From TrEMBL:
Gene3D superfamilies: 3.30.390.30, FAD/NAD(P)-binding domain (3.50.50.60)
Organism, as annotated: Alysiella filiformis DSM 16848
Residue span(s) of domain Pyridine nucleotide-disulphide oxidoreductase dimerisation: 350-460
Record-stated family: Belongs to the class-I pyridine nucleotide-disulfide oxidoreductase family.
PANTHER family: MERCURIC REDUCTASE, PYRIDINE NUCLEOTIDE-DISULFIDE OXIDOREDUCTASE RCLA-RELATED
InterPro entries assigned: FAD/NAD-bd_sf (IPR036188), FAD/NAD-binding_dom (IPR023753), FAD/NAD-linked_Rdtase_dimer_sf (IPR016156), Pyr_nuc-diS_OxRdtase (IPR001100), Pyr_nucl-diS_OxRdtase_dimer (IPR004099)
The protein's name in its UniProt record: Dihydrolipoamide dehydrogenase
S-S bonds: 43-48
Cofactor: FAD
Cofactor note as given: Binds 1 FAD per subunit.
Amino acid sequence: MKKLTADVVVIGVGTAGMGAFRNALLHTPNAYLIESHVFGTTCARVGCMPSKLLIAAAEARHHALHTDPFGVHLDKQSIQVNGAEVMQRVKSERDRFVGFVLEDVNAWDESRRIMGAAKFIDEHTIQIDDHTQIHAERIVIATGSRPVIAPEWQALGDKLIINDDVFSWDTLPESVAVFGPGVIGLELGQALSRLGVKVAIFGRGGALGGITDPVVLQQAIEIFDEELDLHLSSQTEVALNADGKVAVNWSQNGENGTFVADYLLAAIGRRPNVDNIGLENINIERDARGVPIANPLTMQTSIPHIFIAGDASNQLPLLHEASDQGKIAGDNAGKFPHITEGLRRSPIGVVFTNPQIASIGSRFAQLQQKHGDDFANKVAVGEVSFKNQGRSRVMLVNKGHLRVYADKQSGALLGAEMVGPAAEHLAHLLSWAHQMNMTVPQMLDMPFYHPVIEEGLRTALRDVAKALNS
Ligand SMILES: Cc1cc2nc3c(=O)[nH]c(=O)nc-3n(C[C@H](O)[C@H](O)[C@H](O)COP(=O)(O)OP(=O)(O)OC[C@H]3O[C@@H](n4cnc5c(N)ncnc54)[C@H](O)[C@@H]3O)c2cc1C
Ligand SMILES: NC(=O)c1ccc[n+]([C@@H]2O[C@H](COP(=O)([O-])OP(=O)(O)OC[C@H]3O[C@@H](n4cnc5c(N)ncnc54)[C@H](O)[C@@H]3O)[C@@H](O)[C@H]2O)c1
């Protein structure tokens, strides 16, 4: 067994781990990076980027099929999807993004990058497979997350797939049963459906796209139900047919049926990779899911020299959060025992469906939980439907609903949830205002051009301003 000593060891070379290593190096050259699988990051290889590439192809077909209302007529038969070409572009563009990540990784001294699965032996010792042990003064856990798999799906063998598998396809399949109408299931399910793949989406408890505001949720269900085969509160049984197809027997509200598909795509959530890194060997404080608890401003765990970042921390499993957390954790691990609080931004989340779903600041459910029966006295709610919003109608994207929450006493923007056109942009405007602690009257003093979708946001803000004055 090779034995090394280090000031800082970073476990996991994803976005968070790379940020942590980069920042630790600002304080000490004696740092190591450990990766058990491949370099390239989840985001670039099998996450954010390839999913957006697949969605872009789906949008191209969707637009081509929906030009008639503008008086522009295309021969629908001539609009063909070449699955092999779709996947070729997804993979080649994806590889380009991965290439940039690999350039960064390769710029680091090779002797500082160790391949293998890392495990805690004790609070200061990390073992990598059975070949290396490192005594580390400080450690950053940045091991990411993996999809949750229901035990009963194991019998499906290679017909059970996860997001990683989708982005290794050479062509598109005929049919996919998507389990989980959350962020991943809805993004990939809609994209595949718009590319002509037969898709059914199965969920639990009526949830959709992570929306917590009941009014926005109802609007979203109506919108997505128009084009997708949604079963949001279904009981399901899954079996592998003799012909190798997946059969999903479902029942919902007294109705039942069978959906037969080439694959079952598991998208029912992701779990942090902290169950297999030897945490049982160290006395670290963990939450109900077994994840080390960390201060979100310093990313320090209950063991002062151990930090955690990215999806592994289970705080906000999003790319920009992984990047910020990695920077904070690496900086603090590098300069420990002097640690400082890093920048945490206002929360923002975007689901890249069409229409998009987004939230900023506090979600409706969080405000409800905080205020309970006092919600109506504490929170003013304003809203807008995009059905008759001028610019949205012009462009025929007039579907959706936005709800804005403000503090009744101070008028400060608290949060928003929405489904609708340009939600990614509206969410950015709102989250910047939220981070600046702006009040609704201050936001209404900002410029709004004409005719733009942001005028819809102004309607919602005026609505909430009325509720503030009442
Ligand atoms: C399909 C999909 C689409 C997404 N789209 C978006 C999006 O549009 N926008 C957005 O903000 N977020 C998106 N996300 C989420 C985003 O990708 C993640 O939040 C982010 O990539 C997490 O980065 P990370 O560094 O924590 O983990 P990762 O990039 O997964 O890195 C963790 C690394 O740790 C390694 N590792 C694990 N265990 C060990 C061990 N014991 N020893 C050594 N190494 C180990 C892993 O192999 C991996 O390389 C998406 C995710 C998915 C799956
Ligand atoms: N655009 C983005 O920013 C983006 C895109 C993809 C992924 N992500 C990140 O990845 C994370 C994981 O995404 P995800 O979609 O896997 O999880 P999710 O938590 O967003 O959604 C999981 C869904 O599965 C449902 N579900 C749970 N158990 C089920 C079961 N047995 N059968 C059917 N449905 C079930 C849940 O009710 C929920 O609707 C997200 O929380 C997000 O942070 C972000």
